[in-house]
Write a structure and sequence with these properties.
The chain is an alpha/beta fold. Helix content is about 30%, strand content about 15%.
């Protein structure tokens, strides 16, 4: 399992999800998708955005937020939002 992962909570735009998966593949990051999704995973629009990189992504699907938290209960969770007061560049990142 990759030490740094991206979690997508109930994604609803397949093209954005595909692009994030492609980026994660290039940066060697794992991805967690917390369902339900607003589209079928593997849809043609998502695959087109992800190009040929989707087969190389460490992808874990979770049926709910609770399942995701249980699966990663031993790890630090960092939430990002456009509404936060601390900029991501000012945050103190650390392992674990």
């Amino acid at each position: 399992m990759h030490p740094l992962r991206i979690a997508l909570y109930q994604p609803d735009i397949p093209q954005n999800t595909g692009t994030i998966l492609r980026t994660a593949s290039c940066l060697n990051l794992g991805v967690d998708i917390i369902e339900p999704c607003g589209f079928i995973l593997g849809s043609s629009r998502m695959r087109r955005a992800g190009m040929d990189y989707l087969d190389f992504v460490d992808l874990i699907r979770h049926q709910s937020w609770n399942q995701f938290r249980l699966h990663h209960s031993h790890k630090r969770l960092i939430l990002l939002t456009t509404k936060g007061t601390v900029k991501y560049i000012d945050f103190e990142y650390r392992r674990g």
